Amino acid sequence: MIVKQRIKLKEIKAEFASHPEKYRVSESLIAHIFVQVLDADGHPYGPNWQAPGHSAPNEYAKSMREEKFEAAKTKIDGLVQLAKENFEETARLYSDDTNKRAGGLIGRLGKNTIPMRPLDQTAIDTAVKLKPGEQSAPVRSDYGWHIFKCLEKQDVTYEEVEERVYLTLINEARKALFEELLQKAKFEEKF
User: Per-residue pLDDT tens for 6-62?
Assistant: First the structure.
């Protein structure tokens, strides 16, 4: 029923115009240098490195993991000064991320950004707090170590959030329909 309801472009624009603070969030254009941490088998670490319900193996894996992260910390610490001198070149030469060819450019991040590998929420939270031109100290994520640089801050445009506005209107229509159906519903208790 909701999909059959047509939400017109003028309704989307009207919603954006009446509640711009809801959609127009500040985002930061971010670049990073990433040092990936690999386990003993050469696989990248991530958020799901533990085996549920296995405390002894997890403790051993944790100690091995911490050793690997400490070794990578030494490497990232050595890149801090190089990054201050020439961030893009340092990213091209030393970053373990695929975006190193673009000087470490990740793209725009904001408080509503969904973390994707190799970022986690801690990394994003740190990156978006930076001011334009500012570089972070090394930041640990579930995947390794990062040095972030904020290239600029900008507000998103209507065109960039048009889909988000549309999805919000669909969700509100779904809630309203559910409430309407709930009001009309007749409940019977049978024992």
Answer: 778 888 889 888 888 777 777 899 999 999 999 888 888 888 776 677 778 778 888
Q: How many separate helices (H) and strands (E) can be counted in the chain?
A: 6, 4
pLDDT value of position 136: 96
Per-residue DSSP letter, 97: S
In the chain, which stretches have pLDDT less than 50?
A: none
Are the C-beta atoms of residues 80 and 138 closer than 8 Å to each other? Answer: yes
Strands, DSSP E only, in the chain? 26-36, 105-109, 139-140, 144-155
Contact between residue 147 and residue 32 where contact means Cβ atoms under 8 Å apart: yes
Give burial (CB, 10 Å; 0-12/13-18/19+) of 133: exposed
How far apart CA 176 and CA 2 sit, in angstroms, is 10
Alpha helices (H) in 19-157, listed in sequence order: 20-23, 55-85, 87-94, 121-128
**pLDDT for res 40:** 83
